[in-house]
Amino acid sequence: MPNIELAAGIRARIVPETHMPSGPARRFYQGAWMGGVDTLYPDADLTAPVHRHTTLDVAGYAAHLSGHVITVDTHGTVGPIAYLPDNPPRTRADEVRLDEAARRALDLNRPDASWLFASSRADGQVLAALAQLADGADRIDRAAAEGRIIWPEHTDADDA
Q1: Concatenated DSSP letters for the chain?
Q2: What end-to-end distance do the CA atoms of the chain give, in Å?
Q3: Residue 30: closest CA among 66, 11, 55
Q4: What is the pTM of this model?
Q5: Distance between CA atoms of 92 and 100, rounded to whole angstroms?
Q6: Interstrand relation of 69-71 and 81-83 (parallel, antiparallel or unpaired)
Q7: By Cβ atoms counted within 10 A, which residue in 66, 116, 119, 153 is the most buried?
């Protein structure tokens, strides 16, 4: 079952930001997992001046709000990595990609996580999917989140 509290917390953080133009005050940016900083600690106040240029996508928020340290991959091959402060990676094999840490924190299946974390995902789609999860959905109804209407098949019984 997806993490209802985390989905609701992420949504609450990003709703106001989807109504403002891109710029220094906006922290939510679906185009990149993390930007403007090399390492982000779980207790970091994203409204502080030091984080004026820090941005996170929905996966970044999931990792941040679930208590992960997010840092750039020093090897430069997998993108940002995330880890819990009491369990830092000791070797490269211990590193967990940010999107995987976020998937686990939200308790999503891989297809739903991949859909939700896509960099091309529109703000409204992200918010709709998070609302579904926060309301207790077992998985994301992608058609509904994308605003597509799926009509049921017409049967002869409908004409009776």
Answers
A1: ---HHHHHHHHHHHTGGGGS-SSTT--B-TT-SEES-SEE-TT--TTSGGGTT-EE-HHHHHHHHTT-EEE--TTSSS--EEE-TTS--SSGGG--BHHHHHHHHHT--HHHHHHHH-TT--HHHHHHHHHHHHTT-SS--HHHHTT---PPPP-GGGG-
A2: 40
A3: 55
A4: 0.82
A5: 15
A6: antiparallel
A7: 116
Digit-by-digit pLDDT tens for the chain (160 residues) are 899 999 999 999 888 776 666 665 677 777 777 788 888 898 888 878 887 777 788 999 999 999 999 888 766 666 788 888 888 888 877 888 889 999 999 999 999 999 999 988 888 899 999 999 999 999 999 999 998 765 566 555 555 5
